[in-house]
Write a structure and sequence with these properties.
heterodimer; A: 252 residues; alpha+beta; Ubiquitin-like (UB roll); Fumarate Reductase Iron-sulfur Protein, Chain B, domain 2; two-stranded antiparallel sheet; 9 helices; 35% helix; 11% strand; B: 644 residues; alpha/beta; Flavocytochrome C3, Chain A, domain 1; Methane Monooxygenase Hydroxylase, Chain G, domain 1; five-stranded antiparallel β-sheet; 18 helices; 16% strand; globular
């Protein structure tokens, strides 16, 4: 298969970027999107130029490193996948493919298609955990957890932190990411003790980092590679309001 | 004199760790604040160690090459984590987990280390549940278990097909909590390129900032490597693209010996290779072997027609299918250990019964399981894996059997460590997959997650404290002192040399060349002939690298080609040592199969009289010197492994 690629090239966060056009030929329909880009980069290297930078690592859809905006959609024209799970058989021979980085104020560009998502780490550091020191935990079966709660918690915990939710949102909102963590921990008995503190701190951090608000478009859910449900946002909002109403300020 | 002292505590096996903990030296809380620890890598071992060390009050600096610690490759582990809780009342115990692990490793691991691993396994599950890891549960709310290869009890805890992810997110949460309270400082997008020695002790590291290209110097009273395995020496493996041996290899060249490099694990259930452009292989969890049945057509003619896609696997009648694992190993059937399952697949494909267009694949069939449990149960158990398969192969595994083939997955060999997890460089520790210690010649499924977290949460905090108790009088050094400047200067010179070769071969092309030599001559089957040939072929690669590599761009910028090139030269050097080690070990054990050494039935034949040792290599002036750590077995009887 042959493709025309329009790829966003940008030296660093401070520079101005632009689209460059490339031709890539003889691509197997069985190759992954990144294997197609590998082929392109080999061509570019052979010509003595700088290859296109893009983030990728596990190439099996779980590490959440990859972050391409392909033909106007995060992770490309398929659902429930990351970019590395996108295969060229999804495209038509001869098609023009437009490749961009995640675009959000909170995710500055590092180079070309690579962005800095450390804002997500900062949100987790604000409270996305259960405060338990190593070695002071009761027997694992001491607290029975209803299967349904464990399953719902697992659904939310499947988030890979890729940022597709932010990239797909016209407000660059991180609410699905935060909601997923709040739901994952809040649905379990172990996570309830500090639930109100957690939700308040994580939301405050999210706001301070420049992410936008949710206006119920649900693009995040549609584009989430792990299909995290927007009901986690509702859980987060509910937890947040309850905490604000019933919690003493000192509890923060 | 043998430089290797494993420092195994005295006393009966079951008491060694308890006695060690009761008598090891401690550091008081006020002094902990004065001690700096560097942890390299944020997978299960690194993240758990950094978190646990931060919790007790040390100053920790943690480094990873990824953009976030949460992305370390532990995240990709699917199947589960072992622990001897015996929640299923099926006769599990510390001794049984210890025994299965030693036996699964083909008696090439230390008894004391493995026993300690089995002892702490239960604490890990408790810890992870407390952190909010959503393990699978039954309707009563209790934890569920599944069985895994190499064991006859159900001791594997799991979170759907994403156990590694959930455990890592637990450790990442604990780590993030320490980052928030200031005890851990996080350095992402950094490649560790050198360990700094001061008076023979590890005192820091040199890293490259991958965003700016800047060479940075960092001081620590101790350095912990948690940098994972070296499977990418084969180019194609189930490892992440960035997984590398560089930190361990640079430490090796500074004096940290490297053990059993030839012990590499080829995982039986991966999606087969589909073309030359391929960049990595994808694993399908071993848990699939719980319900899936592995077969190839009995008749070579059928296999040929399947390869040409003239017929579908569903057209092959029951009597024409060879369920070769069930046939050869009736006691364990499809649940034999990985090395056995991989070799059996290779044997069938070599006999021309393989399928897929290449003939290098076997079927993993869920037809019977779907009939027995219903499609919904199978969906609940393996839904995400089936979906992943379908995306890659474009076939529906609910309708047609999956095609699988073995691929390089895990490396049991690694940096040599003593019982304290300290390398032969004082103050340099190695934990998780990057050390050699607990899995012998073959790792059992669901044991890697166990070892990573055991080392990080429950072993290192004690053993490192014991070392640091003698370091409380060592003041912090500034990184402007000579040893740091020299080390940084050497790295700078090396990088400059590399980028100025301006040859004609791209990093990927040379890496593919290396990988092909490794796989063809030192893959699932190895012989004196293949290894001699392989060594001959691999030797010129080093010169090829230094004379012909092409690294575009500059050093002082974001440049993934620089990262990849630096990793490649270390893989080339390691590849040579790996083959040398494989040539030295004239026995078949675990993942290391020497074709000259097999029983009449084609099973691996160990040579306990001559090879019951850890082959430990020392780097001296460009030469690799072999030292042997004899393995002493006082509690288990060495037997030929039998899964029949």
């Amino acid at each position: 298969m042959d493709f025309t690629l329009k790829i966003w090239r940008q030296l660093d966060a401070g520079s101005k970027g632009k689209f460059e056009t490339y031709q890539v030929t003889n691509v197997s329909p069985d190759s992954s999107f990144f294997e197609m880009l590998d082929t392109l980069n080999q061509q570019i290297i052979d010509q003595g130029e700088m290859p296109v930078s893009f983030d990728h690592d596990c190439r099996e859809g779980i590490c959440g490193t990859c972050s391409l905006f392909v033909n106007g959609r995060p992770h490309g024209p398929d659902t429930g996948i990351t970019t590395c799970q996108l295969h060229m058989r999804r495209f038509k021979d001869g098609e023009t493919i437009v490749i961009e980085p995640w675009r959000a104020k909170a995710f500055p560009i590092v180079r070309d298609l690579v962005v800095d998502r450390s804002a997500f780490d900062k949100i987790i550091q604000a409270g996305g955990y259960i405060s338990v020191n190593t070695g002071c935990s009761p027997d694992a079966n001491a607290i029975p957890i209803p299967k349904r709660a464990a399953d719902l918690s697992m659904d939310a915990a499947a988030c890979i932190g890729c940022g597709a939710c932010v990239a797909s949102c016209k407000n660059a909102s991180a609410m699905l990411f935060v909601g997923a963590k709040v739901a994952h921990l809040g649905l379990l008995p172990q996570g309830k003790a500090e639930a109100s503190r957690r939700v308040q701190q994580m939301v405050a951090e999210m706001d301070s980092l420049g992410f936008g608000n949710c206006t119920n478009m649900y693009a995040c859910e549609a584009e989430c590679p792990k299909e995290i449900n927007v009901s986690t946002i509702a859980l987060m909002n509910r937890g947040f309001f309850m905490a604000k109403i019933f919690c003493e300020k000192e509890e923060l | 004199m043998n430089p290797l002292n494993a420092r195994i505590p005295e006393g009966p096996l079951a008491d060694k760790w308890t006695n060690y903990k009761a008598s090891c030296k401690l550091v008081n809380p006020a002094n902990k604040r004065k001690l700096d620890i560097i942890v390299v890598g944020t997978g299960l071992a690194g993240a758990s160690a950094a978190a646990a060390l931060g919790e007790v009050g040390y100053n920790v600096k943690v480094f990873c090459y990824q953009d976030s610690p949460r992305r370390a490759h532990s995240i990709a582990a699917q199947g589960g984590i072992n622990a001897d809780k015996n929640y299923q009342n099926d006769g599990d115990s510390v001794h049984r987990l210890f025994f299965d692990t030693i036996k699964g490793g083909d008696y090439r691991a230390r008894e004391a280390n493995v026993h300690r691993l089995a002892e702490v396994s239960n604490n890990i599950i408790d810890q992870c549940v407390a952190q909010g890891v959503p393990f699978a549960r039954d309707y009563g709310g209790a934890l569920d278990n599944r069985s895994f290869g190499g064991a006859q009890v159900s001791r594997t805890f799991y979170a759907r097909g994403q156990t590694g992810q959930q455990l890592l997110l637990g450790a990442y949460g604990a780590l993030s909590r320490q980052v928030a309270n200031g005890s851990v400082k996080l350095y992402n997008r950094r490649d560790m390129l050198e360990v700094v020695l001061v008076d023979g002790k590890a005192r820091g590291i040199i890293v490259r900032n991958l965003v700016t290209g800047e060479i940075e110097k960092h001081f620590g009273h101790a350095v912990v490597l948690a940098t994972g395995g070296y499977g990418n020496v084969y180019f194609l493996s189930t490892n992440a693209m960035g997984s590398n041996v560089t930190p361990c290899w640079r430490a090796y060249k500074k004096g940290a010996m490297f053990a059993n490099p030839c012990f590499t694990q080829i995982h039986p259930t991966c999606i087969p290779v589909h073309g030359d452009f391929q960049s990595k292989l994808t694993l399908m969890s071993e848990s699939l072997r719980n319900d899936g049945r592995i077969w190839v057509p009995k008749k070579v003619e059928d296999a040929e027609r399947l390869r040409k896609k003239e017929i579908s696997p569903n057209d092959i009648q029951e009597e024409d299918r060879d369920y070769y694992l069930e046939r050869r190993y009736p006691a364990f059937g499809n649940l034999v250990p990985r090395d056995v399952a991989s070799r059996a697949a290779k044997e069938r494909c070599d006999a021309n019964n393989g399928v897929s267009h290449s003939g290098l694949a076997v079927y993993l069939d869920f037809k019977d399981a779907i009939k027995r449990f219903g499609i919904d149960t199978i969906k609940a158990r393996y839904g995400n894996l089936f979906q992943m398969y379908q995306k890659i192969v474009d076939e529906d595994p609910y309708q047609v059997p999956m095609m699988i083939y073995p691929a390089v997955h895990y490396t049991m060999g690694g940096t040599w460590v003593d019982y304290n997890l300290m390398t032969t460089i004082p103050g340099l520790f190695a934990i998780g997959e990057c050390n050699f210690s607990d899995h012998g010649a073959n790792r059992l499924g669901a044991s890697a997650l166990m070892q990573g977290l055991a080392d990080g949460y429950f072993v290192l905090p004690y053993t490192l404290g014991s070392y640091l108790a003698d370091e409380i009088h060592s003041p912090r050094m500034t990184t402007e002192e000579a040893p740091f400047k020299e080390a940084a200067g050497e790295i700078d010179a090396m990088l400059n040399k590399m980028i100025n070769v301006k040859g004609s071969q791209s990093v990927d092309n040379l890496h593919k060349k290396l990988g092909k030599i490794m796989w063809d001559y030192c893959g699932m089957g190895r012989s004196e002939k293949s290894l001699t040939k392989g060594l001959e072929l691999i030797k010129p690669l080093k010169d090829e690298f230094w004379n012909d590599i092409k690294v575009p761009g500059g050093l002082n910028e974001y440049n993934p080609e620089v990262e990849k090139a630096g990793r490649l030269i270390d893989f080339i050097e390691l590849g040579e040592l790996l083959m040398k080690d494989a040539l030295n070990r004239k026995e078949s054990c675990g993942g290391h199969f020497r074709e000259e050494m097999q029983t009449e039935e084609g099973e691996a034949k160990r040579d306990d009289d001559n090879f019951r040792y850890v082959a430990t290599w020392e780097h001296q002036n460009g030469e690799h010197i072999l030292h042997k750590e004899e393995l002493v077995f006082e509690n288990v009887e060495l037997k030929q492994r039998n899964y029949k």
